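User: Fold this, then the next.

Assistant: Folding the first:
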Amino acid sequence: MSDISAIFGPQINVTVIDHDPIYLEWLSGILTNLGYQVSTHISFDSAIMALSVAPPHILLLDYEMTLGLGNCCIDDFRQKYPQIFMPVIYLLEPQSVTPLLRRMSIIDTYILRGASVPELAERLVQQLKFHNLPGVLQELGRYTLSYHNHAPMRMEITALFADVRGFTAYSENHDPETVAAILNSMFEIMARYVLNCGGIIDKYIGDSLMAIFGYAPESRNNHAASALTAADAIMNGISAELNNNPMLSRGTPLSIGIGMHSGMAVVGPIGASFRRDMTAIGGSINLASRLCAKAAPGEILISEDTYRQIASLVQVISCRHLNLKGLGEQTAYSVRLGLKTLSWQ
């Protein structure tokens, strides 16, 4: 396990709030050994002043300390101090996962109280990456907080689009709070696999996610393979979520369709001088989006250019010719991550 300061630099501050003083002391020692600057509190009320004056990079919060409504206190805090950005990792028992997912903010996540030290360390690192803290931006060589001053650049990337199928029908038959909770939980899974594989989340578009691989250093030399690994993990992760989440046990079935293309794109800050977003534009992005639209539920559909780069890594389920709007006829491959090509149709 790496010292966190060796990855992100010094002064990554973590606050832990938990009702159990023995667990609090143990967790504080673990985090200190990992290189975090740690402060602890036995209740949320006692921590409010410290959080408002010097908010940590991440807050670890005991979900059970307010009788199963552990997010209410943080919601109140965020309403009172809207200028403070403070993602939360909830500490909870397995039976509390579903109630938390119904109301958890998309910027937050959770970990079970019985998780191992490596699991805890990994969750903290991924939460730091997920929110693009300044030290992480520098480490990954992405864009700094002043990225809007940088010119967009032309480079080869792999674009990935993942779309939730059946969600429109599902949303028409459920209350908005449930719809939002389900979509957030699915985006949580997709986003974390993208980041784990060295990708960057470009944007959320309704019930779809767009990601790019090849801009961050860790995926620059193998962006197609990184994108494929993320796509396969998303399929497996979403499948597990759909099977295990009680909120999805009945009603309209949901699934994921994924499209991918590797090619040149212009990547960088796009928008007005006072409001710009990091994004990728060009024909390569359009092709990936069109392939996603053509992908069947549960299918990963990649372009011929992407296939050439990762042919040895995939199982080909089918190969077909598609007439895509504005792009003409394109060869596409339906694939899953594997060691060899299985069959052709």
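Now the next one, as you asked:
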Amino acid sequence: MAVRFLAYSSRSKIVEGITKATTMPESINRDRPDLAPGTGLVLVTGASGHLGANLVARLLADGERVRVLLQPGFDNRAVDGLDVERAAGDFRDPESVGAAVKGCQRVYHCGAMVSTIQGNAEHRRQLFESNVIGTQHILEAARIHGVARVVVTGSFSAVGHHLDDPSAPSDESAPFYPFHRAMPYERTKVLAELECLRAVARGLEVVVATSCAILGGNDFLPSRMGQTLCDFANGRLRAYVPGGFEFVSARDIVSGHLLAMSRGRTGEKYIFSTRFATLDEIVGLFERVTGVPRPGRRLPAPVMAAFAGVASPFLSRFFPNFRQRLTPGAIRLLQMRRHANTRKAQVELGYRSTELESAVEEAYAFFHAHGAIKNPAARAPMAASSDPALAASPAS
């Protein structure tokens, strides 16, 4: 047994047979009145982003009073017309963060700067200040102003993996390996989790809700996956690279955040995913939902990785505002074909996932309703153009 344990230690998990037989601890927060829905004012950061927009819509549908922290000059269409309090500020400014947090009972820190490029020194500093220092400011303000709990959005890319088999399912106990060529974004999300643990040590209740790649509606900016769907439907996606990743529907990641708030254990993190899918499967879903044929070219990953390795630094230096699709970091993640183990969220929180196809249908209906689909050959949406976050998932 000792030999088997050591063989598995690099995967940061106990022998599979023991893991299956072990009963995880019960949630300790089921009867916490200060965390119950409808209790006090709720702050959501990142409300303009994909996750934040869906979370705000769900909270409002549940009758919550919501305040959002919005960055002036940013695209904040996601909250237009919504009955929310608006606070202007920036994560990097502790005074505006403190003003936004003051008076709130619960906080969802969904805001982050997302990037798959290495970037230049200025870009990396922006990532650090937004994702690490910004998280520090949110947590410190929450501690000072007596917030009952903060749920911080984590990234699956900041969860560790089996070094000899990256596709092996990873759970929350897997430590991040710092010596591979991680993207700056990945590193900042790891450091943000460290800030969460520091805040817990100082007495603040913090839970990390780890997200995978999100698919679904209310994607105003849009997200990387949302833009890919639009490009596909409009016939602008000429080729794709094989690979795979863990995807989560907008419904499921919103439900996961609500469960982390109401049932999660302080200082813990929970992974929320709908399921793993290959890029071939995703392209197949896009084809069925949009009616547009899939690209005929399936490019070899090593060729694209080599090309991206040359093109990405050039674009980052001379065209820093150009939105790069297949960066070296993105290709690396796709080739790792990482799988997530969501058993902890299922056992402790009662999390149940939905389906990816419905998430793609809802995303397509959203983009079609907002005029982003210009291709006359694309079919009308099969799903109604309604807010996917408003319908309660089985886990709620």
